[in-house]
């Protein structure tokens, strides 16, 4: 999606200039790669809904290839890659090319030999059911998934959510959230989550086409069908998990397809109940960073509690001669994002 206002505030430009002055000689504890909104399809270039941004469906694979080449030659090899959702475009469904397109992109990722953590976005659900995605786009090493059995007992009508966490190094934890947990896309019509989503959209969006935002400006714009929200079970699971991280003095990075801070994105791309997630994050001292995709223009904001909210520029709307990916260098006292092309360098100090 695109925005009409700029999110690059004074604070972020100061951080960028500080980042460029930083000492490169210190060895990071580990590194990881980040890429968002590849939206690959073997079709000619097109445009976004409002015809303001060009989309390079076929070329997005070349941009992924260039990212892979860079990651493979990093002096400290990334321990993993975060794929922030919308790995292939919804157009694939129309051409019955969903599986072929997904296989093409996954084969490209496989060339690095680096583990990939896949976040699910709206375009995953335009192409596949949740059951298909569990089989074909399930991250490896998901050893700490949300305990579905426990939740099923409490809410037998609930379908599975795709949320988990992992620790790539002592004192560091990453949490993958399911931003389409409560949603009209990807949920079966008889599920609890679908009915909750319908109620939310009916309350906030009176349009016949629920992909059309209910307002021209402001946060109400987020109540569209192509967004979603986090269910109560997932929020409680996150809260419990962060309490444990607080106790263990961990540094936690949370990722989701949808951004959760209004100053890090165009409001039309915000998660419906972004405020529920923010209030949980504010009640825990362990969270240092939140990473998302969806808004192809990208964004950044450091919030009042010091959490860095990064929205990554989307590959799909990146010109063929440019790039959109990053490598994050993790240190004891900060993370350093080394951006490529449209993704700027940033120094992300822990508060
Ligand atoms: N302003 C709008 N009014 C109506 N439909 C829209 C609007 N913006 C997007 N859509 C539709 O919503 C869906 C998701 O939009 P899209 O731009 O493809 O999302 P993404 O940014 O995730 O690629 C598409 O079917 C698109 O046509």
UniProtKB/TrEMBL annotation:
The keyword Membrane does not apply. Its cofactor is Mg(2+). The keyword 4Fe-4S does not apply. It catalyses: ADP-D-ribose + H2O = D-ribose 5-phosphate + AMP + 2 H(+); CDP-choline + H2O = phosphocholine + CMP + 2 H(+); CDP-glycerol + H2O = sn-glycerol 3-phosphate + CMP + 2 H(+). Its EC number is 3.6.1.13, 3.6.1.16, 3.6.1.53. Residues 31-297 form the Calcineurin-like phosphoesterase domain. Keywords: Hydrolase, Metal-binding, Zinc. It holds the Pfam family Metallophos. One of its GO terms (molecular function) is manganese ion binding. CDD domains: MPP_Nbla03831. Belongs to the ADPRibase-Mn family. Monomer. PANTHER family: MANGANESE-DEPENDENT ADP-RIBOSE_CDP-ALCOHOL DIPHOSPHATASE, PTHR16509. This is Manganese-dependent ADP-ribose/CDP-alcohol diphosphatase.
């Amino acid at each position: 999606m695109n925005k009409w206002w700029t999110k690059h505030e004074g604070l972020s430009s100061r951080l960028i200039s500080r980042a460029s002055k930083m000492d490169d000689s210190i060895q990071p504890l580990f590194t990881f790669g980040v890429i968002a909104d590849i939206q690959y399809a073997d079709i000619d270039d097109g445009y976004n809904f409002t015809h303001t941004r060009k989309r390079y469906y076929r070329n997005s694979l070349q941009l992924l290839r260039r990212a892979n080449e860079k990651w493979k030659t990093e002096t400290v090899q990334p321990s993993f890659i975060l794929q922030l959702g919308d790995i292939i475009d919804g157009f694939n469904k129309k051409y019955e090319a969903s599986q072929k397109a997904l296989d093409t992109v996954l084969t490209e990722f496989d060339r690095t030999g680096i583990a990939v953590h896949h976040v699910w976005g709206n375009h995953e659900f335009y192409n596949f059911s949740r059951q298909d995605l569990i089989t074909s786009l399930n991250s490896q090493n998901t050893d700490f998934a949300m305990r579905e059995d426990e939740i099923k007992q409490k809410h037998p009508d609930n379908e599975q959510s795709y949320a988990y966490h992992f620790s790539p190094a002592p004192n560091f934890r990453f949490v993958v959230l399911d931003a389409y947990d409560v949603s009209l896309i990807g949920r079966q019509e008889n599920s609890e989550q679908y009915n909750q989503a319908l109620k939310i959209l009916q309350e906030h969006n009176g349009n016949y086409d629920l992909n059309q935002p209910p307002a021209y400006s402001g946060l109400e714009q987020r109540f569209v069908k192509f967004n979603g929200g986090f269910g109560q079970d997932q929020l409680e699971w996150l809260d419990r998990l962060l309490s444990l991280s607080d106790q263990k003095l961990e540094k936690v990075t949370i990722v989701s397809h949808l951004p959760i801070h209004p100053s890090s994105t165009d409001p039309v791309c915000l998660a419906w109940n972004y405020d529920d997630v923010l209030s949980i994050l504010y009640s825990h001292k362990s969270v240092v960073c939140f990473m998302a995709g969806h808004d192809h223009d990208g964004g950044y904001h450091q919030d009042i509690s010091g959490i860095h909210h990064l929205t990554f520029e989307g590959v799909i709307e990146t010109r063929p001669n440019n790039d959109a990916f990053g490598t994050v260098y993790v240190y004891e006292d900060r993370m350093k994002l080394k951006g490529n092309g449209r993704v700027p360098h940033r120094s992300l100090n822990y508060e």
